[in-house]
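fyi for ur records
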Amino acid sequence: GRLARQGVAAGRCMKRLATLGLGACLLWLSGCSSVGYLYQSWQGQRALMARAEPIEHLIADPQTDPQLAERLRPASQIRRYAVEALALPDNTTYTRYAALPGPYPLWNLFVTDELSLAPVQHCYPFFGCIAYKGYFDQDRAEQAAADWRARGKDVYVAGIPAYSTLGWYNDPLFSSMLHWSDDYLAEMLFHELAHQRFYVKDDTAFNESYASFVGQQGQREWLKALGREALDPVAGERLRVFVELVLGTRAELEALYQSEQSDDAKRRAKAALLAQLKVDYTAVRDQQWAGDPRFDHWFAADLNNARLLPFGLYDQWVPAFECLYQRSSGWADFHQRVEALGALAAEARTAALGQQCGD
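which gave:
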């Protein structure tokens, strides 16, 4: 997972219409994104916010579906734990609940060149450039993907169960976030709140890796606080193997695209590497996992650069943040150290992250 910062810019624009005037606001947005896109983002955010109700009221209301109330109780506890134990923002984010009309509140579009793993960046006021673009309407996302595909790009549209507006709005807990276990819900909430805690413009890999580590480590500590062991070690190991398979293919593709081969040769090699990834996964699934199909859905769609892109963004610097955490005196100290890294210039920040696990 997992952001929709673009919609915030639209909301900010609409709030400023009264003082700036329509023409000034449109000029302010020029060069960053189309007005139509920003308007749909603002409308989508408004619609979601209108559905939200305070979680504590729903839990106390005898007319609330008992199963829903049962799921909301741990969500409320997880939210308090995030503040008290993980030094994450203490505000009204995720203290309300919104039932969605569909499976997701948002769809993210990832785009890359045919022979590159570098994301096509999408730039917005206040938040800088991001490696994906969020749509509140799936049809719009699919149409945008088709437009990029017609231009020869690799594209991937992913349903997003949770996102953060970095505190600009009081983001609610969505029904899409309750489809999984309480353990996964804890990881998602910690991840999204980390985005509120700290965010660096124009560095998606830094932001997502930081939030991913906070989500994962926070989940481990949450389970320990409940007197439970870590998550199912078998599931964790299979996830690790799956991610390593994908990252290994990413590394091979990266080397391929940087080689001196002709574009036609690169296209053939790309197809072969992606086909081999499926073969390797099938072998692991059938020979080591007794046919466990938990990742089959990911391989069901056509593989391309854009489909592999989120793995590099969300996982790249997680080990670095883990090493940084181990040297910290607690969560508050860790977040301060992260902020110090984020204050560095881009090249210096990358170098510093690469040195976090050094001797």
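The longest strand covers residues 106-112. thats all i got for now
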